[in-house]
Each structure stands twice: as structure tokens, then as C-alpha cells.
TrEMBL record:
It comes from Danionella cerebrum. GO terms for biological process: methylation; tRNA processing. Residues 212-221, 243-255 have a biased composition (Polar residues). It catalyses: N(6)-L-threonylcarbamoyladenosine(37) in tRNA + S-adenosyl-L-methionine = N(6)-methyl,N(6)-L-threonylcarbamoyladenosine(37) in tRNA + S-adenosyl-L-homocysteine + H(+). Residues 258-273 have a biased composition (Low complexity). One of its GO terms (molecular function) is methyltransferase activity. It comes from the Eukaryota. The keyword Nucleus does not apply. Keywords: Methyltransferase, S-adenosyl-L-methionine, Transferase, tRNA processing. Pfam families: TrmO_N (PF01980). InterPro entries: TrmO-like_N, YaeB-like, YaeB-like_sf, YaeB_N_sf. Belongs to the tRNA methyltransferase O family. Residues 212-273 are annotated as: Disordered. This is tRNA (adenine(37)-N6)-methyltransferase.
């Protein structure tokens, strides 16, 4: 009887799993149908608009121009297509900083300009460029208002507070390092785009305009210059004597009732003191203030008299660059941790068989973009340490092998809770 009960329980469990899988598939089909319906409505709206304009032209009326708000009238022509070391989505890094050794090239199409190389004139003076591209392999036409970023391990956030590729307008933006320019071709590194991606535009990266940190440093330097070049105001002798008396009185009060220890109190002599030094000293004082005491005794005060410290701590106060821009906490401290990356002896031996992209030996496998096995090892470590698996694979398929392609190498690996191990590297 117990054996039959166990068999029934096992069958019920399997049926439950199959039911949940079928529900997910039905949900995906419904989403695809909704996407097809929206696309059909947009296409029909475009056809109706074109027919109405044609009819008005036949009647001699001026056709109604709806302007750029009608999305189906916006035409974007790719200026080129990326050729990168990532052939498929699987294993492609989600951000360029994950794999700085990745390489790619972008050739400007001849259909965009008669002389494509002329459009790149002057770009060699920049070290990095912005690339605006299209997520052409999203796989579905619908998108959701809330998404599950892999770094959040299943938690939901709004699509516009993430960098999910599944967006109403599937546009991507990435920052790439410009290694060089050859004619009409850009050579790039630190790329996170798969091969064949259509590029809509490129722009030079200018820290003075694009980096909040640089803006803050610029404003500080401008303030210093104004303070150094400013002329002191002209005062009457009577006003000058009054101000000097008031300043000496205030200075004596500060010397008597100073809250800072006498050996660490700075002397601020003029308005030309560096603002950065002031912030640093204030920060050091606050850290010393919060670590060593919760109450500060006044010098020369009666014994037992004390002044209670403020309720803030140094962790609540932000200085300089930290106060100029903020990001979500999960970006820097995600709920998932970085993984250690290992290679089996067989995988290391197979990877060493690959030659660099400029090698001439035709008997061994050869990289198309990578400069050698060491660069490939760095790229693999960067990709796997960030755990490129989706949340679904991380939870439901944790015991399965993971496959991805880097340049001309097919890589097989598996994941544990704390590390990823590469077990095989074969030519494509």
C-alpha cells in the first residue's frame, strides 16, 4: 500500500510540474499574440493613414501631416553592423565593463555616405565613443512595465529603472573604447554587443559633458579661480576697523569654545583655501567624531558639563562626487555575488591551442578578434564571474551545463554556488 502511495505521489508531482510548464507556455503564447495584435493595429493604422493621404491628393486637398509623433512614419537607417567576438546572445556580457578585453569592428555603410571615411574624420582624437544600436534579437514584440534584472535575482523593478533590452523602443546604448580607425572601419574593445547588431548612430564620449564627476571638478576649479582673482572690496576706514574688531572678537570666541581638539583644528586663513581640503578635513573630523565618542566635552568647561552630539553619522553625509550623482543601491550591492572562475587542465590545454588573430599558421585554430589565449582567458573570466545565466536557468536549470561562444571558440562550463568551471573549449 505504501509503495502505491509513493507512486501516486510521484505521478502527482510530475503532473504538477507539467501543468506549471504548460501554464508558462500558454502565458508566453498569449504575450506573443498580444504583440502580434499591436503590430497588426499599427500596420493597419499606417495603411489607413496612407490611403487617406492618397485620397486627399486625388481630391486636391492638402494631406494631413501628423508629424514625428506617429511612430510608423519614423524611418531609421543603420549606419553599419557590428562584427564582434560574440556570435549569439548566450554568454554575451550585459555591460561593457564586465569584459574589457572583448573586441569588435564597425564598418560605416557606403549607402549612408558617398565617402564613409570622411564621416570619421577627427574621431581619432577620442578614446571612447557612445554607440546607439537596436536590440534586433529580443525574440518577442511585447514588453512589460516591470522586469527582473538578473543582478536582482528575481526581484522586479520598473523597466525604465533598469537596462533591460525588452523595452517599448528596443534601443541600446553602450560605451566602447576606440582602438583605432582604418578607412571606414572602427576597431573597438570593451564591447557588449553581438555580431550583426544594427548601429543607428555613434557619438564621441566627452567627459566634460557626459561625466557628473568632471562637471563637479570643473565647478570647483572655477570657484577657486574666481576666489583667487576676486579683488577685495574697498571699505571706509571706520568700517574696516569695525570689521577687524568683530573678526578678532569672533576668533577669540572660537578659541575658547572650539569643539575640535586643539592638535587637529585647521587654521583657515583666507578665502583662497582649497574647497577639496576643507571637505576632506571635515570628513576626517566627522569620522573621528562618530567613532571615538558620542558626547563632546567643551574645553575649559566645568567638569560634568557636556554637549550631546548630533544624530547624524558619517554614513549619512555625502561629500564631493558622492553628493553629485546617485544610483540605486542594488547596482553596487546586488543580492548575487561574483563567482570565482576555474579551468580544468583539459580546458586550459585546448584554449592554448588557439592562435592570435594575426597568426599565419593554418594548422591550428585561430581567433578572429582576440590577440591570444591570455586575452581570451581574461574575457572568459569576466563573463563567467558576472554569472551570465538568466534567473530561470539559475533557479530551475542549475545542474545543467552552460554553453556560449567567444570569438571562434565554443565554451562549455558548469556553475556551483560560489564558482564557475570551464570544462571544454572547442573551435566553432
Amino acid at each position: 500500500m505504501s509503495t502505491q502511495a509513493c507512486c501516486c505521489a510521484e505521478q502527482v508531482r510530475k503532473l504538477t510540474q507539467q501543468t506549471s510548464v504548460m501554464r508558462r507556455e500558454i502565458k508566453n503564447l498569449r504575450m506573443q499574440i498580444d504583440g502580434f495584435k499591436r503590430a497588426h493595429r499599427n500596420q493597419m493604422s499606417t495603411l489607413h493613414s496612407l490611403l487617406a493621404n492618397c485620397k486627399k491628393r486625388e481630391d486636391g486637398e492638402q494631406p494631413l501631416n501628423k508629424g514625428p509623433r506617429e511612430i510608423n512614419q519614423l524611418e531609421q537607417v543603420p549606419i553599419g553592423y557590428i562584427r564582434s567576438c560574440f556570435l549569439v546572445k548566450n554568454g554575451t556580457p550585459r555591460q561593457p565593463v564586465v569584459c574589457s578585453s572583448s573586441r569588435a569592428s564597425l564598418k560605416i555603410e557606403g549607402s549612408v555616405f558617398n565617402n564613409p571615411e570622411h564621416s570619421l574624420s577627427g574621431l581619432e582624437h577620442y578614446s571612447h565613443i557612445w554607440i546607439i544600436f537596436l536590440f534586433h534579437k529580443n525574440g518577442q514584440m511585447s514588453c512589460k512595465a516591470k522586469v527582473k534584472p538578473p543582478r536582482l535575482n528575481g526581484q522586479r523593478v520598473g523597466v525604465y529603472s533598469s537596462r533591460s533590452p525588452h523595452r517599448p523602443n528596443a534601443l541600446g546604448l553602450t560605451l566602447a573604447k576606440l582602438e583605432g580607425i582604418t578607412g571606414d572601419t572602427l576597431h573597438l574593445s570593451g564591447i557588449d554587443i553581438i555580431s550583426g547588431t544594427p548601429v543607428l548612430d555613434i557619438k564621441p564620449y566627452i567627459p566634460d559633458y557626459d561625466s557628473p564627476t568632471t562637471r563637479l571638478e570643473s565647478s570647483i576649479s572655477e570657484g577657486k579661480e574666481r576666489a583667487l582673482t576676486a579683488e577685495p572690496p574697498i571699505m571706509d576706514p571706520d568700517e574696516q576697523s569695525k570689521n577687524s574688531d568683530a573678526a578678532s572678537e569672533q576668533s577669540s570666541k572660537l578659541n575658547v569654545c572650539s569643539l575640535m581638539p586643539s592638535d587637529s583644528s585647521p587654521s583657515y586663513q583666507s578665502s583662497s583655501s582649497d574647497l577639496t581640503d576643507v571637505l576632506t578635513e571635515a570628513r576626517n573630523y566627522l569620522e573621528h567624531f562618530t567613532e571615538n565618542s558620542t558626547q563632546v566635552m567643551e574645553p575649559n568647561a566645568c567638569e560634568g558639563a557636556s554637549v550631546k552630539s548630533n544624530s547624524f553619522t558619517s554614513a549619512n553625509v555625502r561629500y564631493g562626487h558622492e553628493d553629485y550623482s546617485t544610483i540605486a543601491a542594488w547596482v553596487r550591492s546586488p543580492p548575487i555575488r561574483k563567482l570565482d572562475v576555474r579551468f580544468t587542465a583539459n580546458a586550459e590545454r585546448e584554449l592554448r591551442e588557439f592562435l592570435s588573430c594575426d597568426a599565419t599558421d593554418g594548422t591550428r585554430p585561430k581567433f578572429q578578434f582576440m590577440k591570444g589565449p591570455d586575452e581570451a582567458v581574461a574575457a572568459i573570466q569576466g563573463i563567467l564571474s558576472a554569472d551570465p545565466r538568466s534567473v530561470y536557468r539559475r533557479r530551475r536549470c542549475a545542474d545543467r551545463l552552460f554553453f556560449f561562444t567567444l570569438d571562434t571558440a565554443d565554451i562549455t562550463c558548469w556553475f556551483d554556488d560560489a564558482f564557475a568551471e570551464v570544462v571544454r573549449v572547442r573551435p566553432v
